[in-house]
Amino acid sequence: MIRLFKDPKFQEKVVFLFLFLATLIIIVPVVLVIALIVARGSSVLSWEFLTAMPRMGMRAGGIFPAIVGTSYLVAGTLIFALPIGIFSAIYLSEYSRRNALTRLIELAIVNLAGVPSVVYGLFGLGLFVLFLKFGASILAGSLTLGVMVLPVIVTASREALQSVPKTFREVSYSLGATRWQTIRHAVLPHALPGILTGAVLSLSRAAGETAPILFTVAAFYLPRLPKSVFDQAMALPYHLYVLSTQVPNVKLELQYGTALVLVGLVVIANLVAAVIRGYFRVKKQW
Amino acid sequence: MRKYYEFVVEGLIFASGIASIIFVLLIFIFLLKEGLMVFRDVGLFDFLFGKFWYPISEPPRLGILPLILGSLWVTVGATIISVPLGIACAIFIGEIAPGWLREILKAGVELLAAIPSIVLGFIGLVTLVPLVKKFFGLPTGLTAIAGSIMLAFMAMPTIVSIMEDALNAVPKGYREGSIAMGATKWQTIHRIVLPSASSGIIAAVMLGIGRVIGETMAVMMITGNAAVIPHTFFQPVRTMTATIAAEMGETVQGSEHYFALFAIGIVLFAITFLVNLLADLSLHRKPVRA
């Protein structure tokens, strides 16, 4: 028996079994959570649920304004963060040298990625809502979320740009193209899939976050659609928060339904990102 | 004309390049601008180590020690659970699982990362909290332990994916050399791969902890939110993040309470800044490589 435990082959089997069990402890709950949301949420999922206003203090009716609000927020976030993020990645990949400034930018990006989401909420409240006087509005929320997703876009785009072979650039320069022409025509098109992936991932992040929009945009109950970027709006994650903790006697099914729509949105976004990645990996010719 | 156009574009590129630095500074400045105001009324020491958080009593008592300890308990619990599991999972996915299984497991971990924290909070509220209550025979399931379990899961994707990258970065030759000497696969992983990937593993753990400290919504929903100094894992606690999220909506702008919430933001910002800095330094340490 003791000899068995000293046998490295046997030890290996035992250890691998434990590692496998540890992996299961992580993966099985994920599957269960998704299954639970789908099973219980799909019972309320209907055309009416998706396209009607909430009624009776949100205890009945649909979640249409929350879906619209989240769509506006996501669109606003991308309009703000995509150009800055991509340009920032171009700077890091094509222009910057290995020096202190670059290192500082990298540290700043790492740090932005690590700032707690509720601190982004405070920042948005302080800068956009109060200092710039946007009020609690779609504009303020989008800008706050935009700063939050910036590191996602920069990191993905930079990786995509850097994976374009050097020879592409050299050929372009040798034909007399300027630096910007080279980037624009010889590098960017090939980095596009990676950049798109980053954009889709940041979209799903922006759609799912609650804390940054708590004080910058979210309306508790607003059964009409926002008219301008200076309006407050409902949003899916905040709506789920309100339903599950703030309003008494909400049918659990409504909460599962809202969770399902939110998770569905996010998972579809991630699938799209995976497909883009996979499709272009196959197509890539270098 | 073309020169002019390029000059403008390259100007924009440079401006965007340093945008990240500017945003970090802006966050810091605006937290300080509002947060430092609280120290007109409360001393730094009394703020950090005051034992009572009664923000709306008259006069308000603004000691955040219960909140710091709340965050600490939940974070320590989550770390104890998630670090061993996360490391084990990363080893299994990165070194042991066959190709097809690896892809499935990786997709599972990515899925976990993608689920919004509010959804996990909701699911935790309706499943985990009653379970904790029943299992430990407690008067309420809304406790630090429930928060720790929940947060452990939320930290897992960070730990697993960064550690897996670290394992991938270990040159193949190391493994081949070890196997050629007659070592088993586990001996190779244990003695060769893990030590070579150690700085990446430290970074993975640090970033996981950073994620846990900053997590807000799920933790607010399932830890019970009692701002008292906790003594066990089985009582309600309130974290710094949850305090900001729960109270900012109800406070009067410009009140002491309002400034105090921003000051908590400074504390959080400082902690995550430090954690991320350490993780980054660990990742950029000169690799010991042949």
Q: Could you give the topology of this structure?
A:
The complex is a heterodimer of chains A (286) and B (290).
Chain A lengths: L1 H5 L1 H34 L5 H5 L2 E2 L4 E2 L2 H32 L4 H15 L2 H15 L6 H25 L3 H9 L4 H30 L2 H4 L21 H11 L5 H32 L3
Antiparallel strand pairs in A: 1-2
Chain B lengths: L1 H16 L1 H17 L8 H6 L3 E2 L6 E2 L2 H32 L2 H16 L2 H20 L7 H25 L3 H9 L4 H12 L1 H17 L2 H6 L17 H8 L8 H28 L7
Antiparallel strand pairs in B: 1-2
Helix pairs in contact in B: 2-13, 4-7, 4-10, 5-7, 6-7, 7-10, 8-9, 10-13, 12-13
CATH superfamily of chain B: MetI-like
Helix content of chain A: over 70%
Distance between the termini of chain B: 52 Å
Report the largest inter-chain contact: A-B, 88 and 85 residues
Q: How is the largest sheet of chain B built, in terms of strand order?
A: 1-2
Number of strands of chain A: 2
In words, what does this structure look like?
The complex is a heterodimer of chains A (286) and B (290). With 286 residues, chain A is mainly α. Chain A has one domain: MetI-like (MetI-like fold, Orthogonal Bundle). Chain A is built from twelve helices and two strands. A two-stranded antiparallel ribbon of chain A has the order 1-2. The N and C termini of chain A lie far apart (55 Å). Chain B has a single domain (53-283), classed as MetI-like fold (Orthogonal Bundle). By secondary structure, chain B is mainly α. Chain B has helices spanning 2-17, 19-35, 44-49, 65-96, 99-114, 117-136, 144-168, 172-180, 185-196, 198-214, 217-222, 240-247, 256-283; strands at 53-54, 61-62. The N and C termini of chain B lie far apart (52 Å). Chain B contains 13 helices and two strands. Classes of the chains: A mainly alpha (286), B mainly alpha (290).
Please summarize what this structure is:
The complex is a heterodimer of chains A (286) and B (290). Chain A is mainly α. Chain A has 12 helices and 2 strands.
